[in-house]
Model the fold of this input.
Amino acid sequence: MLDRGEIHGPVGTARKLLARIRAAAPAGAEGDLAWNPEFLREGNAVQDTLRPDRFVYGVTSERAKALLRQVYDQPLAEGIPALAMGLETAELVKVSANAFLATKISFINAVADACEAAGADVTQLVGRWLMTNVSAAGPCRLVLASGVAACPRTCAHSGPRP
Done:
């Protein structure tokens, strides 16, 4: 059994879900979970779904990794990279991507405020790396806020490692 998780949750959610799958599924310990976060940009969800810039797999076995490679065979053949890693790492990739996006949004908002205060034109400062049309509204705002909040909690919970 392979379950492909796309749920947003705190780091550790996938491992807990795997334990529940293995406890309840007829396959028992043979059950696998592949955590496959999505990276959709606002206004580009369809295009990002059809042609993502990368696949991230959090897997628990080589079998799960091979199954996902079969699922995404065509896009992988077209050169879209796939990164396989553990469940927790895949969860942190998603949390980190959301936190980084929130940081970029906060930064451009601060730049726009500084421009307004100084009488400068923010549109003359922007380029590919400084975009004023980046926004977070509706459910995305909640995901970004929870992603930003999750980073320090995750780091504090994990603690330093020797």
User: Anything to note?
Assistant: Helices lie at 13-24, 45-50, 62-71, 73-77, 87-118, 139-158.
